[in-house]
Amino acid sequence: MHEMLGAPLRVLSHTDRRAGAIRLRIALDIDSTLHHYWDQFSTVVERRFGIDMPYENQRDWGIGNLRPEQVAVVVAETHSAEFVLTAEPYPGAIETVKRWVDDGHWIHITSHRADEAYDLTAQWLNEVGLPHDDLHCSFDKISRCVELGIDLLVDDSPVNIENALAVGIIPATLSHPWNEEICEAEGVISAADWPTLAGLLEPLLSDRPSDS
After folding, report:
1. By C-alpha distance, which of 10, 23, 197 is closest to 100?
2. Under a CB-based contact definition with an 8 Å cutoff, are residues 36 and 88 in contact?
3. What residues are paired with 170 via a beta bridge?
4. Domains and CATH numbers, the chain
5. What does the DSSP 8-state code read for residue 209?
6. Mean pLDDT, each 10-residue run in order, the chain (212 residues)
7. Where are the beta strands (DSSP E) in the chain?
8. DSSP secondary structure, 31-45, as one string
């Protein structure tokens, strides 16, 4: 299992921090958090199965129009080079994370992508210029966050948001049709876009003392 990405221009050690110490430990999801994944998913669904799946109609976390094996095929294709390396980050996402890093926060990239997608994911992160300390591709997202002492998780999955709350991790998310309900829950920080989300998180991040 991969643990750390070794690209020296992008992965920043703790001693690279401007303040010289870690402040907040932040975990970031990728699909539908750093870039708009649904367009990729729906494109493959329509091409393979002839099913139209508009973004605004996806009101729950399950994919009711597809069998589980079909979902697996679509997810695998969207995590191929054709899609991973052409994904466009959400406006403001890269700039926000760069600012967090400059302010001394530690960034963990976490994804339910299969381990086979690790190298492509690492390449994409480097190409879009997103600084980070750790990259983890597996299905044990929340338990891994607990092991790392994560303080804040930015993730669109209502399941991950609920599980983060249960273990004392602060959840934040971009709002999507499938997570509208949990965005209303106490303790969940949500916004329609990255600049707004960054503004909502600013008091939390600026008030956090360093680990030194």
Report:
1. 23
2. yes
3. 152
4. 14-35+90-207 (3.40.50.1000), 38-84 (no CATH)
5. P
6. 30 40 90 97 95 91 84 95 97 98 96 92 97 92 95 97 97 97 96 98 79 50
7. 25-28, 106-111, 134-137, 152-154, 170-174, 189-191
8. BTTTB--HHHHHHHH
